[in-house]
Hints:
The complex is a heterodimer of chains A (369) and B (89). Chain A is an all-beta fold and 369 residues long. Helices cover 1% and strands 37% of the residues of chain A. Chain A contains one helix and 28 strands. In chain A, the strands form seven sheets. Chain A has a four-stranded antiparallel beta sheet with strand order 3-2-1-28, with no helix packed on it. In chain A, strands 4-5-6-7 form a four-stranded antiparallel beta sheet, with no helix packed on it. In chain A, strands 8-9-10-11 form a four-stranded antiparallel beta sheet. Chain B is α+β, with helices and mostly antiparallel strands and 89 residues long. Helices cover 20% and strands 24% of the residues of chain B. In chain B, strand 3 (55-59) and strand 4 form a beta hairpin. In chain B, helix 1 (26-36) packs across helix 2. Chains A and B meet through loops of A and helix 2 of B.
Amino acid sequence: MSDKFLVSTxxxxxxxxxxxxxxxxxxxxxxxxxxxxTLTDPRDGRHYAALDHGHFGVKxxxxxxNGWEEIAVPxxxxxxxxxxxxxMWGRPINWSTARIWALAAGGADEPGVxxxxxxxxxxxxxxxxxxxxEMMRSLWxxxxxxxxxxxxxxxPGIHSICVDPRNSKRVWIGVSTGGIWFTDDAGASWNLRGxxxxxxxxxxxxxxxxxxxxxxxxxxxxxxxxxMWVQHHNGVFVSSDEAGTFTEITGVEPSTFGFAVVVxxxxxxxxxxxxxxxxxxxxxxxxxxxxxRTRDGGKRFDVLSKGLPQKHxxxxxxxxxxxxxxxxxxxxxxxxxxxxxxxxxxxxxxxxVTHTLxxxxxxxxxxxx
Amino acid sequence: xxxxxxxxxxxxHVACPQAQAPGRTVREVLDNVFADIPQARGYVLDDQxxxxxHMTIFIDGQMIRDRARLADAVxxxxxxxxxxxxxxx
Lengths: 369, 89
């Protein structure tokens, strides 16, 4: 089980560790800077941190033995002379990394490979632990990519990357908005997946169009890769055929709206969510912060509230801010209002680590070495 | 050669010492400066080598006009200030 997790916030990266049975903040890096996401590579223990310096752009840092070093950041290719591409509001799309929205380690058979998803929709791969990056032109140049749109952000972006643990050439990505895309040839070609997802708010012609789907988060059960879960703008969806088709989960209290989902590493039917009132408000229902958990593939859900604030709680948990450790026992999440909670019993009970951090963008466990 | 002075705010992230470099345009001068400090390039310019959105450049007190190509003319005695707006929380 993991005894440590990293919390990316608007004003720094915080390390939370288990000490004598209690969880406490044991380290702070990049204090004052906007840390948007981290990755800990389970193959070598290295940490990667994405920073957004605003005026000065997006940067990547990698841990060293005793600190951090800045490494290369994905760079978009030169826009062809005279080429025009506009967003949904008619504004020119700048071919430049606007946000790092996904970081994933490659397979066990390809040490050093790191995947990176960005806004405005570029997918990049490094083969040398982030020293250099290559853009997946096969995806960027795909004619349907231009149908991607901004969802939560003004620009479309890749927020989820799932590498098949049995075959690292097979990769799924989630796009907001742009559905789910899949390659089985290490990125040489890409295909749209995700039939069965539904965008209730879209015009009728697009409601069931796989490319019109606003996937908020996509996860895959490592031990049963056929099983994928999606927290979608429109609700919760589950697939039993590697994201080929999805079934919508309905009738879940208090809500099926949210951003985050995690799946148990060995039990494909077990997944967790953090529900909120759907998109026009985006706050916990009745001010009660809860986590929902299914153990049977979505037929029934437990509403988990023990140790979580049940009065005037307006915490929003972003898509990368809910985490599960590699054992499938410990969960942690952080909120937009600076709260961090941890559970050692699969969510049955929670302990507050702090409620005074800056807004939390991501929470990631550090795998036990 | 033109003199290039970077905002102090960027120095916290990457060292950008005052520099002197040849060039007839802002682009040429900055390319020469960044040849010596390549890690600083991405802090000032975006992926298309245009000036980042909230950055600005003054040549002898005049704000440049061409933020994309950086074609504004520079003289041998020019002083170029690379600055940014401070905003937000």
